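Write out this protein's structure.
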Amino acid sequence: MTPGPNGIQNPAAAPSAAGNLTYEEKVVRGHAGLDSLPGYVLAIFEKRAKGGAIFSRLIKPGEIFPSGFRIPFLDWSQKYFSVAVNDSVLICEFTHLVYLDDGNDEFTLNFHLTYRVADFRRVAEIWEHDPLRRLRDEIGRVIARNCARRKAEMFRERFRELERIVIAGEHGRPGKLRNSEEREPHERERLEVVAAGEKRRRSQIQICSARQRAGRAN
């Protein structure tokens, strides 16, 4: 399926795009053409006669689809379709609830996630499975599990220290906040967490604040 450039171009893609965070956050969008789109890398797919499609090539910003692949007097859409994948550093803000292991307190963590696509082809192929939502949910789950072991006083009085300890600890432990190169093949969503202006595979996960939930304090 290909997401439409303005809403849903293909009605069959509507169920996949509705509520899809990867689509809503403009990680992918539809593009009615084969020529480059500023700020996006086009993943071109060739339609098969018996249904389905196979990956053809990537078109980076400023590139032109090779004329040798165009069939004279044939509408390009009869043979190809494209998915535009964002090539910018993007930001996703979200919250996650933490219940402390002592059973007495709960806090809402506010996250500021900076990320960038590392594998344009892979994201174009699996955007319907919402890789951004899966990445967001994993980050929230792993960080919340680590935070749950802490004392409520750290949230109230030493939150920045808590933030540094938790994030540094999860990046340094195997099996925790793994980047896409370390995932099993079936897990590879290919959305790297990167900091703006830094090399790829550098992460920036900021826990902006923690708000204690009413009714759970001692």
